[in-house]
């Protein structure tokens, strides 16, 4: 480099450095802050959720999968209220039937603390503040009441109110709100029988090991109509004070899908899909006397 050009080179370098230290030598487009609403929409883009398996929606439920919530113990056939609801939610989220993968998840495991291997679980799980400490829930997809099923020959069959149930042997599945109603509302003189699964409770009822069992109302009508015809629905419990009991889809506590799944459930409720599916699959669950 010729020594005479050094001052010019030095001046040019200084100008470049000065330009870089400022906001820019030429006008620049103003950066816009991200739109939270747009981000929420993008995160729920049809078929593009951050699911367990890309492009698939993994849905959990227990086995056996009981009627009338499922049919023929086969969640993937789309028959039964909860199977139909699961596929309706999947469609609302942008996933066709071939993109839905079913996974066996024991009832109590669905809402136990810990990471989940499903995107959501559907298995008659009632939303409660206690369960919310371990998992997240979608909006409720079904308003439910608990009911008492007793053998027609049992003294429990004559019950007209909650007090009449205090001196009978009651049973229910472990971890359920059915059991909560027995323990917190009825408060029977004899400790209730607790079963790992509902089919064990039904067997105990059929063989007379218990006078009555408590289950949700649609299940009660299915049991008496198709499984234990010698039993009858004695009545249903009134709603607890405050919010009605609802079944909700269960998600991992930190799931990024919760708002999207709730949005899908809300849309299905608003457009009448949930009501139509309830009428189709739970039509036998007519009103029963309220036990007060």
Automatic annotation (TrEMBL):
Solute-binding protein family 3/N-terminal domain boundaries: 56-285
Signal peptide: 1-29
UniProt keyword terms in alphabetical order: Signal
Keyword Signal attached: yes
Keyword match Signal: yes
Source species, domain of life: Bacteria
InterPro entries, per database record: Solute-binding_3/MltF_N (IPR001638)
Name of the protein described by the UniProt record: Amino acid ABC transporter substrate-binding protein
Species whose genome carries this gene: Streptomyces durocortorensis
């Amino acid at each position: 480099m010729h020594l005479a050009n050094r001052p010019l080179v030095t001046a040019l370098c200084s100008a470049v450095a000065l330009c870089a230290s400022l906001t820019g030598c030429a006008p620049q487009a103003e950066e816009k802050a991200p739109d939270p609403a747009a981000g929420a929409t993008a995160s729920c883009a049809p078929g593009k959720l951050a699911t367990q398996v890309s492009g698939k929606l993994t849905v959990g439920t227990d086995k056996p999968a009981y009627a009338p919530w499922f049919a023929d113990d086969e969640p993937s056939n789309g028959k039964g209220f909860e199977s139909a609801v699961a596929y309706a939610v999947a469609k609302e989220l942008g996933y066709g039937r071939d993109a839905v993968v079913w996974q066996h998840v024991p009832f109590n495991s669905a809402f136990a603390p810990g990471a989940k291997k499903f995107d959501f679980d559907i298995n008659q799980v009632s939303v409660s503040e206690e369960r919310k400490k371990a998992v997240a829930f979608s909006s409720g997809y079904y308003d439910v009441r608990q009911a008492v099923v007793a053998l027609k020959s049992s003294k429990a069959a004559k019950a007209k109110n909650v007090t009449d149930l205090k001196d009978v042997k009651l049973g229910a599945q472990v971890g359920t709100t059915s059991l909560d109603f027995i323990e917190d509302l009825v408060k029977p003189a004899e400790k209730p029988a607790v079963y790992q699964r509902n089919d064990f409770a039904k067997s105990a009822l059929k063989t007379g090991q218990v006078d009555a069992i408590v289950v949700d109302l649609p299940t009660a009508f299915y049991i008496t109509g198709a499984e234990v015809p010698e039993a009858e629905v004695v009545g249903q419990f009134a709603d607890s004070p405050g919010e009605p009991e609802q079944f909700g889809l269960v998600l991992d506590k930190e799931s990024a899908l919760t708002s999207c799944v709730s949005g899908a459930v809300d849309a299905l409720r608003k457009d009448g899909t949930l009501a139509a599916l309830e009428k189709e699959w739970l039509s036998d669950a007519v009103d029963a006397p309220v036990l007060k």
